[in-house]
What we know:
This protein is mostly helical. Helices cover 70% and strands 0% of the residues.
Amino acid sequence: xxxxxxxxxxxxxxxxxxxxxxxxxxxxxxxxxxxxxxxxxxxxxxxxxxxxxxxxxxxxxxxxxxxxxxxxxxxxxxxxxxxxxxxxxxxxxxxxxxxxxxxxxxxxxxxxxxxxxxxxxxxxxxxxxxxxxxxxxxxxxxxxxxxxxxxxxxxxxxxxxxxxxxxxxxxxxxxxxxxxxxxxxxxxxxxxxxxxxxxxxxxxxxxxxxxxxxxxxxxxxx
Length: 222
Ligand SMILES: [Zn+2]
Ligand SMILES: [Zn+2]
């Protein structure tokens, strides 16, 4: 129950920021995760073993190490990986790594947790009081539909994870995506030679709809 309330408020805060709320949460939590893991590098054996088995973080997450404040943590973790590589070089055989990057694993866990949480929020009075921490809280669907909504990759994942997509969420997300498709089609049509006048009649947002489309098609996870 405690986790549910923490997630509820984290989501509410993320919905007030621009962009996909889940991408916002992931960016914040993964920063904190990497920070925490490096800080506890010696005491957390599970993490160190996982890190070693994965051959370190993936390229994307390893970037955080370059600017990390604790050089000793980065050195200790990096030496493990380097030693494994040196052994492999000697044998002229590079081991196959079965573990995925620990930060990527953590990201998958967060995604699954939040997407199921969002998909469980029903748009009816009974469910509202169950989800909200107390009766004065705003129900999840109410603040969620004021956000920019999930990016395409996250909505696609939600459909994969959730047993059932609630009506309010389906309406909110899919009507936006359908409108985006219409706006994009109009943009393409009006970009044709001789349609200069039609193009000029587009709103400022519609003139650069391709930017909005490109942003929605990719996740904003760092
Ligand atoms: Zn997203
Ligand atoms: Zn990673």
